[in-house]
UniProtKB/TrEMBL annotation:
UniProt entry tagged with the keyword Isomerase: no
Quaternary structure and partners: Part of the 50S ribosomal subunit.
Native source organism of the sequence: Pseudoscardovia suis
Cellular compartments per GO CC: cytosolic large ribosomal subunit
Name of the gene this protein is made from: rplO
Name of the protein: Large ribosomal subunit protein uL15
Amino acid sequence: MANNNEEVDILQMHNLRPAPGANKKRIRVGRGEGSKGKTSGRGTKGTGARYQVRPGFEGGQLPLYMRLPKLRGFKSPFKKEFQVVNLKRIAEVFPDGGDVTVEALVKAGLVRSGYPVKVLADGEISKAYNFKGVKASASASKKIEAAGGSVSEE
């Protein structure tokens, strides 16, 4: 136990210091021989010892970004990709006519789900088809309406 007249040093946050030798001085690269010595941590000779090389530099060889073909054209992020079905296939799968929806076309395996559907005019139909939720080309619409059917996009 300490005597009353002896002062006790308590470790406090503002008194903390790193251990001696724990903080090494930063090497100031490229500042001459006096600061560190000869090559200053850059090895000997070569491009890297003299100056910084930009990313993608291949030592004078034709770089990759110039060897690849240029990007041509433009792809719209808003383009609608339609699944197409011809009247010929619809007549085969639905021989009795009636209501044809996107769900029925997906179930029959004519189109994939998640895409808008468009009916094209290849083939002939004799029964009345009522298309719901699909688009149709102008010539397909004429054939459908001539057979007594209808097309609605809702």
